[in-house]
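Weekly sync notes, structure subgroup
Attendees: PM, AL, DS (notes)

Item 1: joint prediction request from the bench team. They want all two components modeled as one assembly rather than separately. Inputs as received:
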Amino acid sequence: MGEGILAGLRVVEISAFVAAPMAGATLASMGAEVFRVEQLGGGIDAARWPVHEGRSLYRAGLDQGKRSLAIDLRSERGQQLVTDLIIGGGPAGGIVLSNLGARGWMAYERLAEKRRDLIMVMITGSPDGGSAVDYTINAGVGFPWVTGPEGWGGPVNHVLPAWDVTTGVLAAAAVLAAERHRRLTGQGQLVQLALSDVAIAVAAHLGFLAEAKLVEEPRGRYGNDLYGTYARDFRTRDGGYVMVCALTARQWKSLGEATGLAGPFAAIEVMHGIDLRDEGERFRHRREISALIEPWVATRTLATVRDAFDGAGVLWGPYRTFKELVREDPSAADPFASPIDFSGFERVKAPPSPAIGANTQQLLETELGLGGSELAELREQGVIG
Amino acid sequence: MGEGILAGLRVVEISAFVAAPMAGATLASMGAEVFRVEQLGGGIDAARWPVHEGRSLYRAGLDQGKRSLAIDLRSERGQQLVTDLIIGGGPAGGIVLSNLGARGWMAYERLAEKRRDLIMVMITGSPDGGSAVDYTINAGVGFPWVTGPEGWGGPVNHVLPAWDVTTGVLAAAAVLAAERHRRLTGQGQLVQLALSDVAIAVAAHLGFLAEAKLVEEPRGRYGNDLYGTYARDFRTRDGGYVMVCALTARQWKSLGEATGLAGPFAAIEVMHGIDLRDEGERFRHRREISALIEPWVATRTLATVRDAFDGAGVLWGPYRTFKELVREDPSAADPFASPIDFSGFERVKAPPSPAIGANTQQLLETELGLGGSELAELREQGVIG
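Output from the run, pasted for the record:
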């Protein structure tokens, strides 16, 4: 990269799983130089599914825009090389990002001895350092009891590792916050964040925790009905599915116009003495509303529904599988490096991901100034491949 | 705030729904001054559920750490006041964050005329400006077809508005990236990002898009089984639910030790000539593994399971409702302002959220230097309340 808004910023990532790699990928997508360092011979999840022709697509996606080094991190020489890499990079270097635990040679104190203004961002599962991952945290944070079909007995996990993703993006913001502070004051920083705390913070910002504390009735499981307003999925005559939303009074009006159901909607209002422009009332009376919309959608094809909804400005969207998404949506078939468009920079397409260890030799040369004989020696000692 | 790592940074937020308010909340949680400007009389979602004693808990959660102004944005005088607020704030001001569409007085060009180094971060639903929200985007991006109980017929939405949350946190990172660039070059920036592009970027980073393109077999719906490795929920004798993970070879060994099932696990290996230390094999043979674990958990209480799992270092977690979370977890009952711990700063507890418009008069005084007679006039004209 090097062309984006973060050009010059240099981050060494020593990581596994999703959150820290996602942080690195977020910074790389904006043009930071991110060096992902891997245990020689393959880290803990280097071969994680989905796999295609022997290559982990999971891993490739998370390494987008990075450069990859494979080094024996168990050897003293390997640790020394990575230390040099971490503390180097000039004023916008000296940044390390990890979720592998900062012990021994990688402890913040040890590295900060060698570069006083070091920034270390360390992601953990839980704040006490106990092991926890997205899936165990999600279980404990409440969402599986409100996700899934109404009336379902057990917990329903969401498949998106949302806490990993959020933590990763937040860790990228934390790198930028700490680097800003360093630029203003010269001070480095140890930055720690735990997945479980991120989950709690998000649940707090969305009002779930205050609701759990203050409202007597527990949040229910409403299937695909959106709590507190009106939105739901419907099935078309030809087996398509659509998500239909009426979050604002204007969208509610559009829905009545598109379906010709404004009259029956008004009848619900008269019957109960309510005003369905109030989204809370739409939620309370969602079954009656849906009982009208359901047959309307069910007797029409997706194409007809699309025309009617688009014509009236309804807020809606068709459900798609991942395969339909990449087939139908050009921006998914060939995505940009970053979803963010900075006016001062040209948007570039997502670069290919490096094979694990692909940039080891080159970076040891350019970043640490190692020569041919030293590289040969490292190879002989089994420190690099 | 003003005590955190982003102290001095000043952002004006003109927003609705979740993503932009989440961006502002993320910056505020790190100590930035965030002024949320609201349409006088209540914005589009000022009363959104959940509500407690007339107060929107949804809204309060998203306004944490901010200050709130209510101004008639439809009046020319109101627009002028907010323009002055946006372009003010000194070197670390001149930042506006919105998802309400940059038209008329709020157009980037108009504001940049008044402050050349303005940073505007504008969040949209889709990149073409068409309306789309988390729920319609999620429908189109593939996850509802792989979420939910195995064998379920229709799409299953996750309840967490994950795209809103991710976009919000990413927009906070974008503010910091643009402010870094401005500090280095003096240049402002129009920053645009669409929820749908964020969803696509995340699906790409997690390998879902490459899989959809390259792997013939579509990703299936596996209920609470984690794809490509071993993790699932189980029910205890006393009706508790636990999420059990064995993502690494070490965690797999622990699970065998904790349950005393190492022998039967080995028998599965012998039967199929496989090595269950390989996570892909654990996924392939997950039903056989689960058939052993299920009765083991089902005949024990949650307390017994907890002791056995914790004793052997199993990666697991109990399922909890939101109410159980705030009752049992001190960090959820009384959360920190930010889930991020910066070593150079004291961590503070989440501050109370302002009532909508609570800081209007104070901020017009301190930020714009308005006096008593001007405020009285604005009140009389209905520009402020």
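Discussion: The longest strand of chain A covers residues 33-39.
Action: AL to compare against the crosslinking data before next sync.
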